Amino acid sequence: MARGASLSAILTVLCTSSIRTTKKFTVYLDFNGNEGRKGIFHRLTIVNGYGNGLNGFYLDPDYTRNGKFYTVHIEDPALPGSNLPDNSAFPGLNLSGYTTTPAIKTPGPLQNEGVLIEWTDSNPSNSTFEGTARELMRVQLNTRAHPMGDLIFNPTARRGDPDWRVLYMEVGDGGSGESLSIPAIRSNPQRLDNLEGKIVRIIPDLNEHTATSTVSENGRYRIPNDNPFLSTPGARKEIWAYGFRNPHRLNWAVDPDNPANNRLIVNSVGLHTWETVNIVHKGGNYGYAQREGNELLKPDNTTGPLPQNDKIPLQVGDDFTDTLVVPTYAVIQYGHVENGGDAIGSGFLYNGKAIPALRGKYLFTDITTGHIWYANYKDMLAADDGKPGTMAAIHQVKVLWDDPNDSPNAGKKVYDSMFSIAEAGYHTRGGTNPRLPGRATVTKGGRADARFSLDANGELYLYTKSDGIIRAVVGATGF
Ligand SMILES: [Ca+2]
Ligand SMILES: [Ca+2]
Ligand SMILES: [Ca+2]
């Protein structure tokens, strides 16, 4: 639940079009080959309202030398056409020898597959793709909801470090954890025999860390020897942490003053009650679908107090093992209430240079309401104490913005969230809904679809999918 700061924290935002004088886009690769479209993947699924299509993208830490980058997209195996890529619109893509991989199994009925691909652009300095691609992994997903997508490398790892070019990827629970119609799949985020509801850690390059890793089952990537479940019979060796619902945004918090404080952070969308920011620990069980936030999640999807003995049996397959695990809890959570939101977006610990007031602050959004908050990073580290009741305080952030299209010009105004800003942008760009489109509960009127992003210098941007506009954060007061 957001607590109002005594002094309002305000971010100033500008349309990037008022900063950039030219606006030119080049199609580098088009994934959308769905139903007769010209793109690369004929089974790309693009169902409105779900996290599908092209869902993840990250550059290799050595990209400027090797031209490699990684993508995740979602396919529906029931769609017509082959699951092999089609390069007819992208002749620079050399597909000789390209083969797909057997999908990693998920228990229960299946809808989609998440596909991780490594691309190698032989000339990373131009704006076209010419090179090769390799499918690294394909993961079965129970439903259209909560797929796999976000990717990240440890930005502090350098050549020779154990984490250099080691990829972290999130896989959502595929909607399994909340299933009422098929109770058996509710345990998929807890079961270590599948990748749903997990953070995965792999080495994409077969030539990297060869002495300290083993080649995966499908022969396409390597698994670091220090992954936590290598010696657990039946467990997927790719798993780094587990028990998540929809851990759709990964980021690395880097403390410039103390590397011991660097953490992998995951923002996970909750079911009916709690949105969470989690510090990821090796082997950690984040509780879902036996917990939601710092509460018990019951089989009917309502929440209640934690059990006296707060432990969860380790589960690999259908049955519990005798090992009991203490769950790891979020360091920030907010509720599905008026001043909260429906679905947490992305968040970043600010490390840029342009706005010193934001240093040491972790800023994050709610997707539907467009609310923005910050927490002091030191409070998040302190809340990572093994105690479910302690959380970092969060402070509401307002937004100072001058609508470039209002008439008469009202000048700069302070907004409580990105919602009205996105709504103005949506209407300016010809949106016909009276309010914003999209599903949302708390807003009662669509969704802003607001998220933060960073540029290469660590400066912040706010993008709202409802109006398709990226706005730069250019100032901050009251932090
Ligand atoms: Ca190129
Ligand atoms: Ca705590
Ligand atoms: Ca104006």
β-strand number: 29
Content-based structural category: mainly beta
What general outline do the C-alpha atoms trace? globular
CATH topology: Neuraminidase
What is the subunit arrangement here?
A: single chain
So, the CATH homologous superfamily?
A: TolB, C-terminal domain
Low-confidence stretches: 1-5
Helix content: under 10%
Spell out which ligands are present.
Answer: calcium ion
Largest sheet: 9 strands, mixed
- Strand share of the residues? 25-35%
Give me the number of helical elements. 3
The radius of gyration computed from the alpha-carbon positions, rounded to a whole number of angstroms, is 22 Å
Compute the separation of the termini in Å: 19 Å
**What count of structural domains?**
1
- Mean pLDDT across all residues, rounded? 95
CATH C-level label? Mainly Beta
- Supply the CATH architecture: 6 Propeller
Describe the overall structure.
This protein is mainly β and 479 residues long. The protein has three helices and 29 strands. The chain has a single domain, classed as TolB, C-terminal domain (Neuraminidase, 6 Propeller), CATH 2.120.10. Strands 1, 22, 23, 24, 25, 26, 27, 28 and 29 form a nine-stranded mixed sheet that branches. β23 and β24 form a beta hairpin. The two termini are 19 Å apart. The N terminus is likely disordered.
